[in-house]
Amino acid sequence: MPGDDATIWMWSEACRLLDRAESMHRRFYGIAGQAADYAWEPPADVYESDRELLIQIALPGVEARRVQVSVDAGVLVVRGERELPVLPDPAVIRRMELPHGRFERRIALLPGDYEFARRQLVDGLLHLVLRKIA
Fold it and tell me: What would the pLDDT profile of 69-122 be if each residue is shown by its tens digit?
């Protein structure tokens, strides 16, 4: 087996084992009532004014059509998937820090009624505006 083939195989096997270990970790330590099949949770910022909530969620490399947004029992739920990029063949992964796979982010909302005023994914940042209903 040539050296490059061995390197590709080792990286591939290491990534597969890490994914499996992470999946087992999520299943074992999963919180009751939460889906354990999500690989990552994107970071979020939440801002409040008198009339609105502005929520920004970092979703690098995620297409808008791959994002689902809903409110369930006072909790904003953002779900989707970030796929691995298509790599040229042959390619060796030298570093992989950006999360990939299915994601879910849950943000408890302040008590009250809200309606979606705006949803926009720009430059890897999901902007959500929830208008407060008086």
Answer: 999 889 999 999 998 888 888 888 888 888 889 999 999 998 889 999 999 999
Q: Are 111 and 123 in contact (CB under 8 A)?
A: no
State the CB neighbour count (10 A cutoff) for residue 32. 4
DSSP H or E stretch at residue 116: strand 113-122
Q: How many separate domains does the chain show?
A: 1
In whole angstroms, how large is the CA radius of gyration of the chain?
A: 19
- What is the CATH classification number for the domain harbouring 52? 2.60.40.790
Give the torsion sign (CA, 18, 22, 23, 25): positive
Do the Cβ atoms of 114 and 131 come closer than 8 Å?
Answer: yes
DSSP structure class, residue 87: P
Residue in 97, 104, 15, 91 with CA at minimum distance from that of residue 57: 104
Q: Is the bond leading into 90 cis (omega within 30 degrees of zero)?
A: yes
Other residues' Cβ atoms within 10 Å of the Cβ of residue 131: 14
Place of tokens 């926009």: 120
Q: Considering the domain boundaries, does residue 127 fall inside one?
A: yes
Domain that holds residue 110: 37-133
